Amino acid sequence: MPTYEYRPVDPNRSCDHCRSGFEVVQRMTEPGLTVCPQCKNPISRVLFAPTVVIKGSPVTETDRKIKEYEKEGKWSHAAELADKEAEKTKREDLKIRALENYKKAGYNFDKYDT
Ligand SMILES: [Zn+2]
After folding, report:
1. What pLDDT score was predicted for residue 21?
2. Could you give phi then psi for residue 103, rounded to 5 degrees?
3. Domain range list for the chain
């Protein structure tokens, strides 16, 4: 099951539980939380985890294209491209990127949850 990260909408109205953010394991079909289970103050889901930067990876034409797709929010396009390129070049960073983009596209690739 995917893990979602939540942060308080207003850090001034938060408790120890949600102040610095917390993670919840939920099914994709479950509705997201809107309030902190402890203090009942509004929280919001963190949609985009910071991108993993791997030093020394070459920037190719494909990288630029993936970035373009990502900018436009075409996650499945970006994922497919990254996936293909990762296969071709055996680049780990692209494999991770493909997974992240598939996630953003809403794919459930959690093989152990079927
Ligand atoms: Zn709280």
Report:
1. 93
2. -60, -45
3. 1-47, 61-105
Alpha carbons 26 and 113: distance in angstroms, whole number: 11
How do the pLDDT tens digits run along the chain, 114 residues long? 778 889 999 999 999 999 999 999 888 788 889 999 999 999 998 865 555 555 655 678 899 999 999 999 999 999 999 999 999 999 899 999 999 999 999 887 665 544
Report the separation in Å between the CA atom of 42 and the middle of ligand 1, taken as the mean of its atom positions: 8
Distance 104 CA to ligand 1 centre (A): 26
Which residues fall inside 5 Å of ion ligand 1, going by CB? 15, 17-18, 36, 38-39
Q: Given 3-state DSSP classes, what are the helix, strand and coil percentages for the chain, each rounded to the nearest 5? A: 35, 15, 50
Could you tell me the distance, in angstroms and rounded to a whole number, from the CA of residue 87 to the centre of ligand 1?
Answer: 43
